[in-house]
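Lab meeting, action items carried over

1. Structure of the two-component assembly. Owner: GW. Status: complete.
Input record:
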Amino acid sequence: MNLRTYLAQHKALVEQRINEYLSADGMPANLHKSMAYSLNAGGKRIRPVLVFAGAEAVGGDIKRVMPLAVTLEMIHTFSLIHDDLPAMDDDDLRRGKPTNHKVFGEATAILAGDALLAEAFWILTKASPACAPALVLDVICDVAEASGARGMTGGQVFDMEATGKALTEAELENVHRHKTGKLLSVSVVGGAKLCGATDAQLKALSIYGAAIGLAFQIADDILDIEGTEEEIGKDVGSDVDAHKATYPAIIGIEAARIKERCLVDEAISALAIFDDKADPLREIAKYIVDRKT
Amino acid sequence: MNLRTYLAQHKALVEQRINEYLSADGMPANLHKSMAYSLNAGGKRIRPVLVFAGAEAVGGDIKRVMPLAVTLEMIHTFSLIHDDLPAMDDDDLRRGKPTNHKVFGEATAILAGDALLAEAFWILTKASPACAPALVLDVICDVAEASGARGMTGGQVFDMEATGKALTEAELENVHRHKTGKLLSVSVVGGAKLCGATDAQLKALSIYGAAIGLAFQIADDILDIEGTEEEIGKDVGSDVDAHKATYPAIIGIEAARIKERCLVDEAISALAIFDDKADPLREIAKYIVDRKT
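Predicted assembly:
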């Protein structure tokens, strides 16, 4: 398989549908604009792609998991809008474009994030009629946990508390497992779950998701040091400037590289029970550490 | 029936359980503190009481709707935390206590609001095993819509856009139907829905909910002018000072009084198909315009 083609096709699939799902109907026009601005600001759409690849790995249909794919991209976008706020990371640029609050003002940016989170659950509930209600409920439960205080939002707090402090490797891992790991894991597991995966399959995909989530973060930390500004879409070395704890800073860049390769091996090993329908997941794991953006 | 006793008992019921539901397990300690601070800051708990009264009106069991009651109080609390932020209403006090961001800082307050919204969906999904999955999904869908861009969050945007402008009565009504009306309506309708209400019952409760939601807001506007600071827990006339559009300002205080009584009559008429198990709902409608806080 050609991963580049796979990623481009699956990214296009979700981008075609995301604006249909985010209907302006019944919303204040400016709020809709603000939500759509950040939702259409590009990005790798890695969570939707993982939803699709998780569904395909168990022989499922992509159409069935489209609402979950859109939902997770909305939740990811909500977190970016709030992370960029002046009270948080105070970023002016995101993927080379002005951040949401720079364009729409702080109040609207806060509310656009809030609305994306609520809308995500609305879509997941409303647009999944092909799935058994008990399965959808189970996935909503996973998504809510991975988004909230025990997941991504909690991870942002751990991250804030860590800034400027000397963290151990275990503490840094705790930040990332919450901040990005759980939602990435829910992407691949949720996609498979909605397509009737077995418990053994879900367990394997959960190990895969956790491993690539962490590998992804380590790769990001390395890119922050070694990438070019054009490649990574923000200032090179901005993590260092912000005194953020990173893997290269804590364990050294060589050890960080070894750790990310280890995690990729772990992710691929976990997929041993799957046939070649899981090849996209295997290729995605390898891509994570080889990517340049 | 004695409404005062009813309100006190049902408020106590949800307050006993709300901290059990908001388990600190797996959350950053400070985030949990911030969430719990606002959740335990008092208030009338009108949404949980409406959930209970809606369930009782159709002969349902309060235990079955406890997760929904807690969920809606969490969503209400999330909206208060975000509304109070410097970028929004910039309030230092809420119910006589320092607002969340004054105690925990702006970043944590934003994240505590986010986490309460996610947690609300988690609890609704996780803690409703006694209900049919399809019913729970239906209620989650209603709650998400009433919380997001088509409901409360959209209403906050309409409200912001209205500040300092001369609104028509219809425009003001649009603000309130979104900002408070939809979530109040979902409270009473959702409680009944989880207990197996018929379509006719749900339709009646929906009319009831919309009418008392608006009456509640008009009563608030009147209280802002006529209440004492001790009664209403904020500065008297603060809406006037903030150049907020209010019913008394637009249609005059006498017309506002007539309108709120009309809405209460409409709410009570909608309950005609119910027996005396809907008496708490009838009394709550009357109480809304007679209350002093």
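2. GW to write a short summary for the group page. Key points so far: Chain B has one domain: 3-290. The mean pLDDT of chain B is 93.
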